């Protein structure tokens, strides 16, 4: 049994991305350093932080961005984790083998050890989000990891809309769910749909926190990427909410920003005692959940 503290500080790195992958890795490491100086102990980067969001088009040349795990990004981040004695969660375009690529999050412990990976399970295919062209769906299931500062779960972006993913991760003992994310508006849709889209995104993740009695930490990218007359406007808005869905801190929708937020497991314990949703689950009645529809 790992002896973990009752409190820990989470750092979320919300940043814009440039064309050169080296610049993005350098920026991420610099911002991790800044988060550490502000007390962060578990730092999470946004989805596919090392490049601009390349899934806006189907282009086989973009596979050149992929890297193995371990690879350049994980080696650099492991060294940082070991040097600063922090946990780092990072989203990587993984080259598993020729023709098999994943959208993968790595969890690196505070001694630099690569604890494991989570491969994104739900893969979208929408205008400017052509992820099925690039990513093989995850085959590891949902996972939680014991880090120096607590047991954490990691899911990725499109996973955040699925209560089953949050539930199965929480049932493994994760006390906080991290969601590295790359979500934004088509600029032409922002005026018409922007507030509704953003509100739904925030609401569903607060609901995961409430239903499972866990902290939820969501880190999104920010800024415009793609053609000036189109592309995507990433809406930032990274946030951390407590196990009853109360937003503890939230980033802006326009600017790069660091969030550092304290998570208190005694608060989680208190909420679960008063709102025992996990206790009262009728596990004998949920068999049909594995069907696509109940006809």
Describe the protein's architecture and organization.
- It is a single chain.
- The protein has 295 residues and is an alpha/beta fold.
- The chain has a single domain, classed as Nitrilase/N-carbamoyl-D-aminoacid amidohydrolase (4-Layer Sandwich).
- Helices cover 25% and strands 28% of the residues.
- It has five helices and 15 strands.
- Strands 5-4-3-2-1-15 form a six-stranded mixed β-sheet. The chain has a six-stranded mixed β-sheet with strand order 6-7-8-10-13-14, covered by helices on one side.
- A hairpin with a 5-residue loop joins strand 13 and strand 14.
- The longest helix is centred in the last third of the chain and has 26 residues.
Q: Descriptors for this entry?
A:
alpha/beta; 5 helices; 295 residues; six-stranded mixed β-sheet; 15 strands
Short description:
Helix content is 25%, strand content 28%.
Protein topology:
Blueprint: E1 7-14, H1 21-37, E2 42-45, H2 72-84, E3 87-97, E4 100-108, E5 114-119, E6 144-147, E7 150-154, H3 163-170, E8 176-181, E9 184-185, H4 187-212, E10 215-220, E11 222-225, E12 232-235, E13 239-241, E14 247-250, E15 257-264, H5 265-274
Distance between the termini: 45 Å
- Count of folded domains: 1
Individual helix count: 5
Q: Compute the number of strand runs.
A: 15
């Amino acid at each position: 049994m790992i002896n973990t503290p009752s409190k820990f500080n989470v750092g979320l790195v919300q940043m814009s991305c440039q064309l050169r992958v080296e610049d993005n890795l350098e920026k991420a490491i610099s911002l991790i350093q800044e988060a550490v100086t502000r007390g962060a102990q578990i730092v999470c980067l946004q989805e596919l932080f090392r490049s601009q969001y390349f899934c806006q088009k189907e282009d086989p040349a973009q596979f050149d961005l992929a890297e193995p795990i371990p690879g350049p990004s994980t080696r650099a981040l492991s060294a940082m984790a070991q040097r600063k004695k922090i946990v780092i969660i990072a989203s990587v375009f993984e080259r598993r083998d020729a023709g098999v690529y994943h959208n993968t999050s790595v969890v690196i412990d505070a001694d630099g050890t690569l604890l494991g990976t989570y491969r994104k399970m739900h893969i979208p295919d929408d205008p400017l989000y052509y992820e099925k062209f690039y990513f093989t769906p995850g085959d590891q299931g949902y996972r939680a990891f014991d880090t120096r500062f607590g047991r954490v779960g990691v899911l990725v972006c499109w996973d955040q809309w699925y209560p089953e993913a949050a539930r199965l991760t929480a049932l493994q003992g994760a006390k906080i769910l991290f969601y590295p994310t790359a979500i934004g508006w088509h600029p032409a849709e922002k005026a018409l749909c922007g507030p509704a889209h953003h509100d739904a995104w925030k609401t569903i993740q607060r609901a995961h926190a409430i239903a499972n009695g866990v902290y939820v930490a969501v880190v999104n990218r920010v800024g415009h990427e793609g053609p000036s007359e189109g592309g995507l406007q990433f809406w930032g808005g990274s946030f951390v909410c407590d196990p009853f869905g109360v937003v503890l801190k939230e980033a802006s929708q326009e600017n790069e920003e660091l969030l550092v937020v304290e998570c208190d497991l005694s608060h989680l314990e208190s909420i679960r005692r008063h709102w025992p949703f996990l206790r009262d689950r009728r596990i004998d009645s949920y068999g049909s959940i594995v069907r696509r529809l109940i006809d």
